[in-house]
TrEMBL record:
Protein name, UniProt field: DEAD-box ATP-dependent RNA helicase CshA
Keywords from the named record: ATP-binding, Helicase, Hydrolase, Nucleotide-binding
Pfam families, per the entry: DEAD (PF00270), Helicase_C (PF00271)
Gene that encodes it: cshA
Superkingdom in the source lineage: Bacteria
Ranges of residues in domain Helicase ATP-binding: 73-242
GO molecular function: ATP binding; hydrolase activity; nucleic acid binding; RNA helicase activity
Length: 453
């Protein structure tokens, strides 16, 4: 576990509002990546790449291919359709980006279309493609919502080689006839399961039907549920399936724990956990945009090194938030699942599921924000007594039991009294409810058995 080694303040007692020692931005550092034990012995020089690509990889400090890169690149260079399964943080962008750059035909474009679920991922993939194509005459444009469409239309008039876009905005440009798919030779669906989760399936199918039949299609996904398989069977030609997802999700590099806690005590538990762990970088996941903003406002009173990100923020603010987090300008990011998938932040050491995710796959992707590229990490999930079944579903999904944890001296349960009513105990944001009129006592209902946490 990485620890904060900056200048410490005087020791404060538990009543002090100072959350973390050294409330100053971290030094900007270049993270040192450890090499996973299962890294293949192949080198990029073994993958039949051009001299220009090898030079770009060397400048980008890509030393050896990750397993998915070593597996996908040779198949993609042969022109095969590929259904690739691997969790985020394993180098998927370069796995499809390198073959795209290597096989781009000359002439009027665009020649490649990469569909992604979020604006942030569109920017990230565009930047990665630009880095991998440095020194080559290749133009990549990202198109996504939240930005003026006129500026994107101007860029599309120059016939860029590669388009990275969200399905909704791609459909917008197709409707306006500012984007032609007639010259496409490669289509990539990145984070395909996430795109289907958030309702992009009709848009994706509409786009694929407009693409040339004689094309190469690559579908990359962390999970391959039946809807993904049906999509692959319908729109891909004899795809080769490659699976680089671990059988026991993140078991080697991520410790996974849970706390049992009443809703109103979550904030106090979070503060105590952050004090105990002293994370270098931490992402705290909430289920809703309102909950994210509210937790940010409260935690901001404890430390200056916290920001939040959610779907109601302007795109420029979201980009700055991610950029500043990567640059170590603050240490705690409170987020909805908008950053649960696809965003490449490689040095996160702590994940906190402040709210249990609605879907088990979202847990997988949240936890996947740490323990990336062989680094160690730890994840904690806050589970209320009513959420035992959701914890069980998560454990069944990952085929692993989470470890129960406790913090010394912390009582996770709300004590009911005249001052603290059962209604208060159900107030999950920790604020006291308005006073209610007393009603005559009613016969208590029969208590149902709940899973012991």
């Amino acid at each position: 576990m990485l620890r904060w080694v900056g200048p410490a303040r005087e020791t404060a007692d538990d009543n002090n509002d100072v959350l973390l020692p050294g409330d100053v931005p971290l030094r900007e550092t270049v993270p040192t990546l450890s090499t996973p034990e299962d890294t293949p012995e192949k080198k990029f020089t073994d993958l039949n790449l051009s001299e220009k690509m090898l030079a770009a990889l060397k400048e980008a400090r890509y030393e050896v291919p990750s397993p998915i890169q070593a597996g996908v690149i040779p198949l993609a260079l042969e022109g095969k359709d590929i259904l690739g399964q691997a969790r985020t943080g394993t180098g998927k962008t370069a796995a499809f980006g390198i073959p795209i750059i290597e096989t781009l035909p000359s002439g009027k474009g665009p020649h490649a279309l990469i569909l992604v679920p979020t604006r942030e991922l569109a920017v990230q993939v565009r930047d990665e493609i630009a880095k991998l194509s440095k020194g080559m005459s290749i133009q990549t444009v990202a198109i996504y919502g939240g930005k003026p469409i006129k500026g994107q239309m101007d860029k599309l008039k120059r016939n860029p080689d590669i388009i990275v876009g969200t399905p909704g905005r791609v459909i917008d440009h197709m409707t306006r006839r500012s984007l032609s798919l007639d010259y496409l030779s490669i289509v990539v669906l990145d984070e395909a399961d996430r795109m289907l989760d958030i309702g992009f399936r009709p848009d994706i199918e509409k786009i694929l039907r407009r693409c040339p039949e004689q094309r190469q299609t690559m579908l990359l996904s962390a999970t391959v549920p039946p809807p993904i398989e049906r999509l692959a069977n319908r729109y891909m030609r004899d795809p080769v399936k490659v699976d680089f997802s671990p059988k026991n999700i993140s078991a080697d590099t991520i410790e996974q724990h849970y706390f049992t806690v009443d809703g109103p005590k979550k904030m106090e538990l979070l503060v105590r956990l952050l004090r105990r762990e002293q994370p270098t970088k931490c992402i705290v996941f909430c289920r809703t945009k309102r909950g994210t903003e509210k937790l940010f406002q409260r935690l901001q009173k404890k430390t200056k090194l916290v920001r939040c990100i959610h779907g109601d923020m302007h795109q420029g603010a979201r980009n700055r938030t991610i950029s500043d987090f990567k640059a170590n300008k603050y240490r705690i990011l409170i987020a909805t699942d908008v950053v649960g998938r696809g965003i490449d932040i490689s040095d996160v050491t702590l994940i906190v599921n402040y709210d249990v995710p609605e879907y088990s796959d979202d847990y997988v992707h949240r936890v996947g924000r740490t323990g990336r590229m062989g680094k160690e990490g730890v994840a904690y999930t806050f589970v209320t007594p009513e959420e035992g079944n959701q914890l069980t579903r998560i454990e069944m999904r990952i085929d692993k039991l989470l470890i129960r944890d406790e913090i010394e001296g912390f009582d996770p349960y709300v004590k009911t009294s005249v001052e603290t009513s059962p209604t208060h105990a159900r107030d999950t944001d920790g604020t006291a409810p308005a006073e209610e009129k007393k009603e005559p006592p009613k016969k208590a209902p029969r208590r149902r058995h709940r899973r012991a946490l």
